Amino acid sequence: MTTTPLSPADGLRGLCGGRVHLPGDPGYDAARTPWNLAVDQRPAAVAVPHSADEVGEVVRAAVAAGLRVAPQSSGHGAGPLGEQALDDVVLVRVHELTGVTVDPDARTARVLGGTLWQEVVAAAAPHGLAAMHGSSPDVSVAGYLLGGGLSFYGRRHGVAANSLRAVELVAADGSVVRASAEENPDLFWAVRGGGGNFGVAVAFEIDLLPYPDVYAGMLLWDRERAPEVMRAWAAWTRDVPESVTTSFRVMSFPPLPDLPPFLSGRQLVVVDGAVLEDDDRAAELLTPLRELQPEMDTFGRIPAVGLTGVHMDPPTPVPAVSDHTVLADLPEEAITAYLGEIGPGTTTSLLFGELRHLGGALGRPAEGGGVASHLDGEYALFAVAVAPFPEAAAQGRADAAALCAALAPWSTGSLVLNFTETDVDPAPMYGDRWERLRSARAAADPAGVFVGHHPVG
Questions:
Q1: Cβ-proximal residues to 457 (8 Å cutoff; 6+ apart), any chain
Q2: What share of the chain is helix, strand, coil (3-state, %, to 5)?
Q3: pLDDT tens digits, residue range 191-205?
Q4: Among 55, 72, 151, 378, fewest CB within 10 Å belongs to which?
Q5: Alpha-carbon distance 407 to 409, whole Å?
Q6: Sign of dihedral through CA atoms 87, 46, 190, 448?
């Protein structure tokens, strides 16, 4: 009689109350699937812990079995991990380790590692507070903050990682390590923008903002208006105060019945974001764009909890591919190059080509900040295509790369970690901070147990 040899990951069975899944197990495929459905990650095992203790048990068992560990929460940015060999990796999905506790007097929140931003926003709102969330309500706090975090509050308040007061990580020996300005300060510096290379983040303490409501919304035109709107927006962004954070997108929607009529089957130009001013001042600042007579204008005073819906990001998992770069400027030649790829009269598979306005507090190094306390550049370009099948993924990657290549003459060479969803050399993201980041990684994880989506080696 022959028997099937056990894999090194078999020793993890039974941990996390049975929520460890190996290839061939009934729950393996569901457990390994990230939010980005285009990513096919096939680890040696997937663990779904519900506590820091369970994370510690999994890490100790993985190390004992000679396996490495990859932290993951929602899996929005799973692309780079999916491109790595994971046959000796335990994927620790912390998406069920959730919870928020708000201290309204201190204006802080304690957030467990797999919590989504919408949960944080909802918990803060009754106290008249807001969080430095991104544009999607269902992005996890962990991946977003560890990647720096780009918010519609950003030009006034900087990158979201600067709002971190402390992080609790499960280290390679399974213990929980707290990192803050006072405790393990080198580690605290590194995790604020260094990704998941230093342990499994199980809790965060963050500062909240005193915004019960904000002036926010979107302006919408047909794509035929893209040349004049883009030129007006580019000129406008050079003069607006730091209280204004917006994005410009050319978007193409398929004719789907579940889309609202103003989107379904249409090619559009959208400017959206937030203006952290009173109503009169906000309206004054928006006048140059409103004079272009958008067919839809939703800008107005809304509860802060509503800001997560302004960008219209997909509310459910989708398969997507993307590319990204950061621009130093947006002169006329760059505008022409952008429109040549995605403007009127062009054909592209891209769902959108987005330019996110940076600068302001986003561009200034924060005192006491981490490795990604600021962003070098004036605009972040993010090109995304829906990829429901391999041929669509290939075409989407090509079109996204073509848009970034067209704008390459104005690229800074740096990247925003949250927007970098392909496997690239991470060193340019950090510039002269790279060697210090590598040293911090070597000190925190000398055996190389943890596998980040963008590895720091």
A1: 438, 441, 448
A2: 35, 25, 45
A3: 999 999 999 999 999
A4: 378
A5: 6
A6: negative
